[in-house]
Amino acid sequence: MRLRGWTSGDAAAVLEAFRAEDMRTQSAEPIATEDDAVRWMESWAARGHAFAVVLDDEVVGNVAVTRIDGHGNGWVSYWTTARARGRGVAARAANLLAEWAFEERGLYRLELGHRVTNPASCRVAVKAGFLPEGVERGKLVYDGVRHDVERHARLATD
User: Fold this and answer.
1) What is this structure's pTM?
2) Domain-by-domain residue ranges, the chain?
3) DSSP character string of 102-113
């Protein structure tokens, strides 16, 4: 597995990933065409650092660190394609991202959150070394329904 920057040639992989029902709410804008996918990839430059997760020469996911602040903190996000799920891909990718963020970017604290109704994302976070820190009640809203979010963090010293 390796992480690399996104390229316009990855548009088909992004489009395929966002066709999955559970991925449709993971982007602020709908991703319905390859042009949408290219815009999504290009948008990361203004928000932080995003990497394509590549396994056996196939793009199978995304890991990113955004919201980097003056205190050395960043916000981590991840997703994998349906075919890559259940194989430990997201946890390994999140771990590689954390190592990069600490060593190359000089960050100290990485945070992430997942809906409490998403135990798979919780397992990814824990396997990647992100310790649970608490529940933020009613933090997210999807389709008019509020969701509690469990926050996790990993420190450079962990």
Assistant:
1) 0.91
2) 2-155
3) HHTS---EEEEE
